[in-house]
Here is the input.
Amino acid sequence: MGYDPENPMKDRITDIGPPHYERFFPQVIKDNYGKWLYHEIVRPGVLKHVSESGAECYTVRVASARLISIEHIREMCDIADKHCDGILRFTTRNNAEFMVDDEAKVQPLLDDLASRGNKFPVGGTGASVSNMVHTQGWVHCHTPATDASGVVKAVMDEIFDYFVEMKLPAKCKMALACCINMCGAVHASDIAILGIHRKPPMVDNEAITGVCEIPLAISACPLGAIKPAKVTLENGDEIKSVKVNAERCMFCGNCYTMCPAMPLADPEGDGCAILVGGKVSASRTGATFSKLVIPFLPNNPPRWPEVVQAVKKILEAWAKNARKYERIGEWAERIGWERFYEKCDIPFSDKSIDDYRLAYDTWRTTTQFKFTSHIK
Amino acid sequence: MGYDPENPMKDRITDIGPPHYERFFPQVIKDNYGKWLYHEIVRPGVLKHVSESGAECYTVRVASARLISIEHIREMCDIADKHCDGILRFTTRNNAEFMVDDEAKVQPLLDDLASRGNKFPVGGTGASVSNMVHTQGWVHCHTPATDASGVVKAVMDEIFDYFVEMKLPAKCKMALACCINMCGAVHASDIAILGIHRKPPMVDNEAITGVCEIPLAISACPLGAIKPAKVTLENGDEIKSVKVNAERCMFCGNCYTMCPAMPLADPEGDGCAILVGGKVSASRTGATFSKLVIPFLPNNPPRWPEVVQAVKKILEAWAKNARKYERIGEWAERIGWERFYEKCDIPFSDKSIDDYRLAYDTWRTTTQFKFTSHIK
Amino acid sequence: MPKHDTPLMDELEKGPWPSFVSDLKRQAEKNPECWDILGQMELSYKDKITHWKHGGIVGVFGYGGGIVGRYSDSPDKFPGVAHFHTVRLNQPSSKFYSTEMLRKVCDLWEKHGSGMTNMHGSTGDMVLLGTRTEELEPLFFDLTHELKWDLGGSGSNLRTPSCCLGKARCEWACYDTQAACHTLTMHYQDEIHRPAFPYKFKFKFSGCANDCVASAARSDFAVIGTWRDNIRINQDEVKKYISGELKAGGGIADSFGAFDIKKDVIGHCPTGCMWMEGGDLKIDDAECTRCMHCINVMPRALRPGVDQGATIMMGAKAPILDGAQLATMVIPFVKPTADNDFEDLIEVIEKAWDWWMEFGKNRERIGETMQRVGLPSFLRVMEVEPIPQHVKEPRCNPYVFWEAAEVEGGWDRDIKEFRERHKM
Amino acid sequence: MPKHDTPLMDELEKGPWPSFVSDLKRQAEKNPECWDILGQMELSYKDKITHWKHGGIVGVFGYGGGIVGRYSDSPDKFPGVAHFHTVRLNQPSSKFYSTEMLRKVCDLWEKHGSGMTNMHGSTGDMVLLGTRTEELEPLFFDLTHELKWDLGGSGSNLRTPSCCLGKARCEWACYDTQAACHTLTMHYQDEIHRPAFPYKFKFKFSGCANDCVASAARSDFAVIGTWRDNIRINQDEVKKYISGELKAGGGIADSFGAFDIKKDVIGHCPTGCMWMEGGDLKIDDAECTRCMHCINVMPRALRPGVDQGATIMMGAKAPILDGAQLATMVIPFVKPTADNDFEDLIEVIEKAWDWWMEFGKNRERIGETMQRVGLPSFLRVMEVEPIPQHVKEPRCNPYVFWEAAEVEGGWDRDIKEFRERHKM
Ligand code: SRM
Ligand code: SRM
Ligand code: SRM
Ligand code: SRM
Ligand code: SF4
Ligand code: SF4
Ligand code: SF4
Ligand code: SF4
Ligand code: SF4
Ligand code: SF4
Ligand code: SF4
Ligand code: SF4
Here is the structure.
């Protein structure tokens, strides 16, 4: 049967939602739903949950590139069929999890995974770096200032040990977003990579008529940097367009989102900022925004060495200096941001000083500071 | 000789500044300037400073109404002449200080002071309530929403013990300002009383022409609540005036400051707000703003019983519950503001929720809160 | 057989982390358009800009969301990705799958699309990456008929809700996150599929303050589990942590050395409400803010209380345009339950929507509307009594908006009568 | 003999705190206008509003400040206060007085004014409260000729600077606050007396972080003493505090009970940089933020370091109009000294003034101008290198203003050339 283009509404089914989750529970989870008593991390990547009933569920977490093929998914299915009664799941950070109900089944599963090259590294639990939440980048999106999957691959290759081992002071939640829309959880991550533009939009006068509602383009700009303008095209036509006061532009890209004739992207202008110290959980300290500590690193495909090294440096400075259970931001708050910059060997610039809406609340309004190397 | 109105510029002296401070130093201070080694608080109101040279300076601090007469000052001079080689000083909180260079001279001085009725209470040092920084109120200013000296007198009478004894967890720095211009240090005080208006300005159309520049009045309003208007006076003249959108008014009084024809003052509208938890010193925690915890109490002269009781309740709740060295705001931060309201038995209202410029930063963006009686 | 030279992409086949490049190549054997994905990406790697055109409005009939249109700016070079639309399938709550179902999705996508996916999108959808416009209706037909599965959200509508795995495999879930997520997803199919809002709106459900679905940072409406009574303590197990018999955090790190209950647990407690007394761990629960830290560190000794429920937070979002927002605590405690189809949540949601749909500006997230009108006004809209828990601290400026009704005598005054008492 | 019935005012004669009402009555014997002060205040106590008219511009010739004009709205009833202008005398630094000088002021004010004063005004002036317009010039003549004393500031000018008593009687002053205050007061007589600024500007000088003149909250330009090296520790004295031989805070409270160095000192240290080691108190000075707490509690054991100087903070103010501001740390360390007439301070002040006088709006305090242009721009103006010490934390939004010169290739781009690579 299938879809009949002649008869699009025939037998149409809508609004049925997703399949019910219970259909996909492994038996041990169905039986022990809401009855779990405690868990252990048996080894990196392997969780053991114990139920009030005494039942056990072993979970093996494997990394995933997230941008994966159906062939790859089918291979996951093969594994799950072989070891896990045909069930697997994905985590909120895009790792895959294979569950078994018996300790004896763990090692065969691990062996199988290990036998498949670099496709299924086991890890990401406990005091580790888990998978990076990330976005589309050049593989799919229209507004990116950097790539996503490639940068993530380059970074995770370099800090791989921290995924497969648990040797950090606490969890490190990383993220990447390819533009300041921040589809990745950049604004509240321990370490985040953020694609940013640094050149004001061009105005494509030849194209603007038709693709863009001028008043919308103007009102898109939060800083009023866009004004209406009359311009004469090469063919002599006078049209309504806009002009941009580059001095007032903060490169947010909202104009481009609203008006395709105002592109910002540029090979030299675009690159990555590094933000650190955000978190989401309310454990110990409440949810916290990430702070922009490195305003710009160039896009240097395919391996973004500057970005990779910056991330690694921060990660390792934290690993070396923080107390147990202290997330990166908690550590920075305790030692003071001036000390953070020093420990991480990051140069400070006025780019990291807020000058947006709520800026005043971030100014240092106390004589309490440390005499770091920043003070000559 | 004296001033000659016929010849105002004759022998005119200007820009000579204040007398040099050194002229007024007691000998022991002149001799030990910059050489002080340590101090002790011998008893409430009596400080002992010891110099590297071994010299000692005893200081007796006495309360002052601040609004004082020259007869009162002359009486102070008599005391200083008798005990202190003709020198006295005033503190940054408007207390007077009498200094002697020998322990033996302290008791006679204290006895003398005590013999003069309630004019010279000794205290205000250490973990006490010192004098209240305050302002003019109805004795001199044109914009007050409450009195100053009278409220201070009423409050200090009631909590007098806390001035003459040192039995609080820390210093308590109090202030009063009779309008939101806050000439008293209300915005950074442990407990502060603030005169506030609650009725929008009236427009005195009969008077506005001449006394007021309309554009200035309009631009005075931070919320754009004042608009130009044409009105017809009783005599039939049509004049330019303004009208106020009362819904948008936040009663800041800036319009009245700029335009005398826009009075706000009102017997029922005006009254006092109570702010708490501010501090200035960087000791332990940095300088902090006071928070508005009681939005309004009525003006009830001559003794403002509601204000007095509110202040006392907060003071004593803090005294009872805080740790040593914890200023009021530090205590409130540690226990949480919800608990503060409970401990002080103050009702909470949405008036204490910020909705001005930087409001978002004060919203609770965490699940971390306590289940106080506020949660039904 | 590679269609394009991709020396830059090939570099990303090296290293221990799974390679999406190798994967693309593998898939290209079955779906040759994958060569063009690789080719166009290689070009982006060279040019350092995206090669996707701006926007592209496509969809399935009757739905205003679920598909993100995308067109190549170099369709001649890369015809396989000339159209490259994304299809968002609404994932089942907390993303458990039977291989049977997954394989069906794979087959569907092999037939109708590129064979490449995101497992999963940041909002939570299963994202099928790249297909042509003419495939959309057939795909949707097969999806709904054969898989009995539906699209998720995109555009100015309710986005696909998501949740932590909660009671399915976690001992800390204080309400049933999956049931809440699924029930509301089903309840709001219309809002998910047909944009009627000023901008996007997201639900996320976490079972406890650890917030494993990042709801406090990434959803307009976040429901986060908590409890009202006392942490359950098993003192015997406490002693086992102290003696080293049990590992901190169930073995959260291999590098932590000896357990130190004073430093590791009590020392990190944000409220300082814990102490040791004669070998027993004591908690002054009235002062506890249920941050989860102590429970996280000693999962066998401590458990959330039994009077469980959730806190409702609202308004989180990314920075466009006024700056990012974390969610704001709106309702301290509700008991969301499948017994009443989560009507407590529905009531709150609809109150917020009714208002936001009327007063929210175009492309204004509810958090921004909240900021624009102020929290006091928002609480009035929500008919929530203002409590100190709504703020970190009381306001420090004196600029209170009084209402006429609150002030004795109201606002109508007679300037003449005033001038009798107070001359100019 | 009382001129008016003042039952409400009379109530304020009771109680242990000194009574300004009794004092007014006493002064009324010499200056009968005091009866009218009492009378008009009584009326205010009845009417619950002020009875002073708005404003009143008066002054002495050639000065734009120092006098605040005030007129009664009921001059018929209270002729003694029909005019009631305030005269601000610039107090000597830190307010020591010889009785000889004070008596001269009293005589002056008995002759030319009401006999009532504020000792002192909130800014620091000696405030003479209430005189008639025609007395102003004679008073000023006598003040300058006989007392060799001058007026302080009011209006849009430099306000009377003020300072803590510092080295005069305090062991903690890290620079000479009095000398700084006096030198700058003399240096800027013109700025104090002749308004040339957009709005008022205040200097305050505190010798250490205790900030006894509240400079961090109440001055546009605050200089607060600090040190760069190590806290001086006398371990023998530390032990005396621990043993109870010495009293905490020199005897700061009578109710504190036993001294507990762990709780009272180490436990309150904001940086956690102190610890006990074998009976000795240790400080990791590099981590100390010189908050003064430990020194305050153990004045005989601990002292500020010897490499002393000051931090410059700017922009504090009351709430009108954008909300109150606390001072912002601008220059972490200078060594203000009379040896060079405080030229380090003067340089900073004048840089700020030059800019503020050019760019500040009318009635905009410098703190507000700083907020309007942003801290990065302000630091550029001040030619101060931006350092992390300028902020509590780095920005969390990504909205950085890049300049063309910082970006490779600048901002001039060719849309055509771009379109060759990226078609619409
Ligand atoms: C599987 C997953 C939930 C899901 O529905 O998929 C999950 C599962 C668990 N989380 Fe989580 N968390 C998961 C994402 C999160 C997130 C969201 C995110 O990463 O974006 C957070 C908040 C992130 C943040 O704070 O920035 C999160 C914050 C926590 C915390 C608090 C950590 C902290 O100290 O701040 C704990 C407690 C702990 O680990 O001690 C926790 C604890 C746990 C426990 C131990 C809960 C339990 O008893 O089973 C689970 C195993 C943890 C582990 O991996 O070590 N989980 N956890 C998610 C796995 C993601 C991954 O693949 O890495
Ligand atoms: C005399 C005076 C300075 C002056 O130039 O006039 C002064 C003098 C001293 N102050 Fe102060 N302070 C004086 C106003 C202040 C102010 C300003 C104010 O009150 O508006 C502050 C900042 C207020 C704030 O933080 O809100 C202030 C915060 C301190 C502190 C920090 C207290 C804290 O823990 O936060 C100390 C340290 C201490 O007391 O342990 C201190 C300590 C001292 C010492 C012990 C300094 C010393 O070694 O001599 C002096 C005696 C203190 C006492 O009275 O217990 N002084 N002190 C001021 C007396 C005012 C009064 O009459 O009560
Ligand atoms: C696919 C996905 C990224 C990914 O790789 O996973 C995504 C992709 C896009 N997002 Fe997003 N967002 C995605 C999750 C998010 C999230 C994360 C979340 O939901 O937890 C956020 C931050 C949280 C939030 O909602 O604030 C997010 C915040 C944005 C924003 C900024 C919204 C704001 O209020 O600040 C925009 C801009 C806009 O709406 O115009 C945006 C816009 C977009 C658009 C539609 C670009 C555009 O302006 O047209 C992207 C389409 C990319 C493409 O070519 O397919 N996307 N977007 C995520 C959706 C997949 C899914 O359904 O599961
Ligand atoms: C006399 C004094 C209060 C007192 O009783 O001590 C005072 C009195 C007035 N102040 Fe003030 N201010 C006084 C210290 C302050 C202080 C405290 C300080 O300097 O440490 C402040 C807060 C700090 C600050 O500068 O921000 C202060 C902040 C204001 C403001 C709000 C300024 C702002 O930027 O927010 C105004 C409103 C204005 O300027 O229009 C103001 C305006 C006024 C006016 C001139 C009223 C007006 O708008 O015309 C008051 C005249 C009262 C009168 O009738 O005599 N006064 N004023 C203080 C000056 C005496 C002196 O010279 O020693
Ligand atoms: S972060 Fe920006 S560029 Fe990246 S997927 Fe989201 S909208 Fe697109
Ligand atoms: S990028 Fe942002 S700030 Fe710049 S013109 Fe466009 S909308 Fe305005
Ligand atoms: S606080 Fe207001 S009313 Fe009081 S003296 Fe200052 S300006 Fe006048
Ligand atoms: S009181 Fe303030 S808010 Fe109200 S009208 Fe006057 S200036 Fe505007
Ligand atoms: S949020 Fe809480 S309940 Fe949900 S998975 Fe995480 S730890 Fe478990
Ligand atoms: S849950 Fe958090 S606040 Fe409560 S006792 Fe444990 S650590 Fe302390
Ligand atoms: S600020 Fe410091 S130096 Fe000045 S008096 Fe106060 S404690 Fe002493
Ligand atoms: S001065 Fe403050 S920060 Fe420094 S050691 Fe003492 S208490 Fe700690």
Notes: The first strand of chain C starts at residue 67 and ends at 68. The mean pLDDT of chain C is 97. Residues 7-145 of chain C form a domain with the Alpha-Beta Plaits fold (CATH 3.30.70.2500). Chain C has three domains: 7-145, 162-228+307-390, 232-303.
